[in-house]
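Summary for the funding panel

The consortium committed to producing paired sequence-structure records for every protein in the target list. Below we show the first two records in order, beginning with the earlier of the two.
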Amino acid sequence: MNAVELFAALGHESRLAIFRLLVEAGPDGAHASTIGGQLDIPAATLSFHLAHLSRVGLIRGERESRFIRYAAAYDTVDDLIAFVTHNCCRGKACLPKTRRAGRAASAKATAKTVGRTAARGRIKTPLKTPIKTRTAKDKA
């Protein structure tokens, strides 16, 4: 894992919105057309961003017939969280480990807590801090 590449990939608004949507979707992920529709990103632009996120290892795509279903790569997410929190709290383990049995149930519970991605990237967070990401329509 190269943390610089991972953070650089998430440094783009569209890629961050795509990644958050896939994390919220849980292990089942979502088809590219669903992602594009929810975030209002044109197909060619979406394909570019999905390829970039896949290349750095933040998401994985699995072909289903004519479609590709994308999901967050939770092992990479766990490694990134461990990297960020390594020196947290004076080196003491203050955060629970994210790797645990029953990840599917945990991811679904988290998705309910966090809430679904709203139109145009407005996302409800547990801290009640709205995070806005611009979409193609907002940029025009």
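The next record, for a separate protein in the list, is shown here:
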Amino acid sequence: MATSKADSLKEFYGIPTTPKAAEAPAEAAAPAPPPSLNELATSRPLGELLQLSSQRLDAVRDLYADRQSLVYNHHQELVGASETVGDMRRGIEALAPSRASLEQQLEQMRQQPAAPPAAAPEAAPWLDEVAPVIELPWTLRRILDARTPTSVAEAEAALQAHAPILAAWVEARVAGADELQRTCQDMIAEAQRHS
């Protein structure tokens, strides 16, 4: 038997429902009109009427509380669903630029022919001349740490071999050339003092 929306909601929230009365035939007589206040006052004692009125008020309050509970619960569910949908929409909108950029890059990759592997870059021709001068402090340290009778002389010879280049760098104001020259000279001077 199909149930109404109200009965479905009551069943969902555990509110007791009353079974529908059997449909009266079309030719059934119209319901009797409710008794008037005078009839009620004369047919029932005042205490019973007050008790009946109190029961009716309690029933009205219960119905109103049920209604408020239904409205509140559904409102909370609707608010939560609305926030979830909003978060999802904002997330999709935030991903749209990334998706468009990715599609554009994929399209460019499809259109470009396969490029041959790039050849390894050749070393600059001046690197072989510059590297020994830059590495001169490490070269001198390695010679002096050997502590052979000729270590100081070998270190002096290595410094003299690169002295013209160092002097040219210092004169041209190459960044760091002055410090490099001073470091090498200090290493030789210290080795001479301890020899």
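Regarding this second record: The CA atoms of residues 159 and 195 lie 17 Å apart. Residues 127-194 form one domain.
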